[in-house]
Design goal:
32% helix; 15 strands; 12 helices; single chain; 429 residues; eleven-stranded mixed beta sheet; alpha+beta; 31% strand; two-stranded antiparallel sheet
């Protein structure tokens, strides 16, 4: 087994499987007409026929929604778990998944008190008449949320979380790697799974094609299917009038997984990357990675963070509310992952229809990070060329030596190439 000596050696000679995939996505599920006070007033006054708009009119709808959840839990013989403060919901879910034998269905229902954005009614007094009247305001409150943990035939495990208070906003969480595993299994394609990833596949080209086919339309269909199966807070007449849930992107992770031939390969990669790229979080470098112009008024902290859990390091680079994380996954693969927490960082809307454009940005950022790391660590000229540049030139006027832009090779190995730091504006050959 040959031991790689540089980042380029690892990426060129020691990657046995490479694929791109959407990882976790956290989506907002909301009724667009009910996200502002004016829309709520229109719903209550025009659609519900109230003389004075007040959220007290939706109290019966809230009670009916809660009853339907209780009836659903009893009818499906499900557990209703009251989550405790600090309890890891994923640990609870994994226990239910190990016992679940069906191809699809509901695992259990969870309940937790969380802060939510709500609409409420307060009483105001008229300065002219002295009488009181209802006034709807936007506020926050600690209210119960209900988590429906489910398994889908195409998407695998996911959850849909409903706020129990008007306007009943919800959250949908899916995992693109689980989607990919389901698609491979349905087609009978042999693969070996990593935790939240894939280690090997009998047909890598088809696997990548399946990953590319995870579209906004398929995610929307997943939501519609399960809204029909699960308790729904809005009655049919509201939905017929256009008060229907839509999707927007709260958080999206775009991952590049490069499975390595040996664990030592990954350790070599991170040793070199961490030593040579501690300045990768500077604005000039971040501008290259995210292909965005950075100015003095650009918000956010520009920094490089190396976080070590046990003996496994991970590299973090931030841009506004988005970030790239790079780590050695289970000692088997190099995972480079761009997480976009606000699509506005890239002048893109939050609606799910923008997923195709957003994935281009996320996957391109992963590739640019690797390019910057490879260029920053590996030399453009070998040791022999470096020595030639230092020899005197006779018979013609000597050009400015490129050696001025090089630093000496690492003293650990005389055969190791030197590292070139090109001058600004210089494009290496």
């Amino acid at each position: 087994m040959s031991i790689p000596r540089s980042v380029a050696d690892v990426l060129v000679d020691h990657v046995v499987l490479e694929y791109e995939a959407i990882d976790r996505m956290y989506l907002n599920v909301y009724v667009p007409h009910l996200q502002a006070v004016g829309g709520v007033v229109g719903y209550l006054h025009t659609h519900r026929g109230q003389r004075f708009a007040s959220t007290t009119a939706v109290a019966p709808m809230t009670e009916a929604f809660l009853r339907s959840i209780e009836q659903f839990v009893d009818g499906e013989d499900l557990d209703l778990i009251a989550f405790e403060k600090g309890q890891r919901k994923d640990d609870v879910t994994q226990g239910y998944l190990r016992k679940f034998k069906k191809s699809a269905g509901v695992l259990y229902v969870g309940k937790a008190q969380e802060k939510a954005r709500v609409m409420r009614t307060e009483r105001r007094r008229s300065n002219r008449t002295g009488g009181t009247y209802p006034w709807i305001v936007e506020s926050t409150a600690m209210v119960n949320h209900y988590y429906f943990y489910c398994v889908d035939e195409d998407f695998g495990p996911f959850f849909l979380k409903f706020c129990s208070y008007f306007p009943y906003n919800a959250k949908l969480c899916i995992n693109g790697h689980e989607y990919l595993k389901r698609q491979l299994a349905k087609r009978g394609i042999a693969f070996e799974a990593l935790d939240n990833g894939i280690k090997s596949c009998a047909n890598p080209q088809l696997m990548q094609k399946l990953g590319d086919e995870l579209t906004a339309e398929k995610i929307d269909r997943l939501l519609r299917k399960w809204l029909r199966r699960l308790p729904h807070p809005f009655p049919p007449r509201d939905r017929a009038a256009g008060y229907r849930y839509q999707l927007s992107i709260l958080q999206a992770e775009f991952s590049l997984t490069q499975v390595l031939d040996h664990p030592v390969t990954g350790r070599v990669f991170f040793e070199e990357v961490i030593r040579e790229n501690l300045d990768i979080g500077r604005p000039s470098q971040v501008s290259l990675i995210f292909d965005r112009k950075i100015m003095s008024r650009t918000p956010g902290r520009f920094r490089t963070r190396v976080i070590t859990e046990g003996v496994v390091p991970s590299l973090h680079v931030d841009y506004k509310k988005s970030r790239i994380k790079q780590y050695h996954k289970e000692g088997e693969a190099l995972r480079t992952e761009t997480t976009i927490n606000d699509t506005r960082d890239f002048d893109i809307g939050r609606r799910i229809e923008n997923l195709a454009e957003l994935r281009k940005i996320g996957f391109a950022a992963n590739r640019r990070l690797l390019d910057v790391q490879r260029i920053g660590h590996d030399c453009f000229v070998g040791e022999a060329a470096f020595q030639d540049l230092q020899k005197p030139v006779t018979g013609r006027r000597a050009a400015r030596s490129r050696a001025a832009f090089c630093r000496p090779a690492c003293t650990r190995s005389s055969a190791r190439p030197a590292v070139v730091r090109p001058r600004p504006g210089h494009i290496p050959e």
